Amino acid sequence: MTIEKMSGVIAPLLTPFNDDLSFAADLYLPHAQWLLQNGIHYISPFGTTGEALSLSVEERISILDSLIDGGIDPGVMMPGTGLCNLPETIRLCKHAAEHGCAAVMTLPPFFFKNATDQGIYVYFERLIEAVDHPGFKICLYHIPPMAVVGFSPDLAARLAQDFPHVVVAYKDSSGDFENTKAVIAAAPSIAVFPGSETFLRKGLENGGVGCISATCNINPSGIRKVFDVATGAFEGDLDRVNNEMVSLRKLVEGYAPVPAMKGLLAQQRGEPRWRNVRPPLLPSTEDETQELIGSLDNRLGSLRT
């Protein structure tokens, strides 16, 4: 039986904090709703952009519950669940699966820098056996610039072959499109998402299915427009819309992206709490935000919810 692949534009949600750095639920739900209203196909709480590794397991569980209780369909959510220990990773994965989430995005056990493909395979084999839920699906999260440890094309292919109903996607945040192409070739049954819209068009032209990108938080409609034109859903000048999207991305990349995007939301939404980040990150200053806004030169649409 052929398994239909996930596809589309996925936003890894920024996580807002109060001034005491507790979770700001009143900012989070409206932001998630705004992203979906502006064309995002799926939202992904607790990725790198969401400062996931600065959140406790209990926080992740209660925050996911708050989205569901707020009316967000779990079928459009792919929460991050990857930690270095199996018991807590199992707990997060079970919680997501039991609540009907479309998939989970899971890091390898990243602290163990000398882990072999076989060691990572056994970790995921045990994870899948322990969760043991018919709706459980995994997107392998490959981000070697941060985690060092990653999923080689051969390992992705082996996991997809041995667990075809569970290992269904791969997020490639390596920044190396040759790796993206290698994974698509090695594991053609899974949905491969570049981790930046910079590679959205090229990915779609080479067998990819969309992108999972931090800057979806501030440019959801622009990124969705490129996806729609590139896939033929709408007519348009693909070169123009793609160049606009990539140029905005590159301007944001010139700053610390998470604090920079939070600064933009704080300024445009008139809510200074959006500027808060948990250490070791530091918030952007108002001067930095104004400098970025000037660089964007009216290329940014309204961010108001």
Description of the structure:
- The model has no long low-confidence stretch (mean pLDDT 96).
- The relative contact order is 0.13.
- The chain contains 12 helices and 7 strands.
- By secondary structure, it is α/β, with parallel strands linked by helices.
- The protein has one domain (8-236): TIM Barrel.
- The chain has helices at residues 25-37, 57-69, 86-98, 117-131, 144-147, 153-162, 177-186, 200-205, 220-230, 238-253, 257-269, 286-296; strands at residues 8-12, 42-44, 104-106, 138-142, 167-172, 191-194, 210-212.
- It has a 4-stranded parallel β-sheet. Strands 2-1-7 form a 3-stranded parallel β-sheet.
- It is globular and about 50 Å long.
- The longest helix has 16 residues, at 238-253.
